């Protein structure tokens, strides 16, 4: 999977589904976005 993603690119694999690993890359992207969102919400909670 890593070789294919490195060949086609992570975002292209996840968003354009250029190979058979598109769904797996989309789940990985979902985890990254969820972590970023959670971190932002946590920081906002401590600011206000």
Structural features, described:
With 48 residues, this protein is mostly helical. It has one domain (2-47). It has three helices and no strands. Helix 2 crosses helix 3 (22-47). The longest helix is centred in the C-terminal third of the chain and has 26 residues, at 22-47. It is rod-shaped and about 45 Å long. The termini are far apart.
Structural class: mainly alpha
Q: Please report the number of helical segments.
A: 3
Rg estimate, integer Å: 14 Å
Helical content stands at over 70%
Mean pLDDT metric: 92
Molecular shape? rod-shaped
What distance separates the N and C termini? 42 Å
Order of secondary-structure elements: HHH
Major sheet: none
Overall tally of structural domains: 1
Strand tally: 0
Oligomer: single chain
| Low-pLDDT stretches | none
In what range is the share of β-strand residues? under 5%
Secondary structure layout plus pairing:
Layout: H1 2-8, H2 10-16, H3 22-47
Helix pairs in contact: 2-3
Short note summarizing the structure:
With 48 residues, the protein is mostly helical.
Keywords:
mainly alpha; about 50 residues; single chain
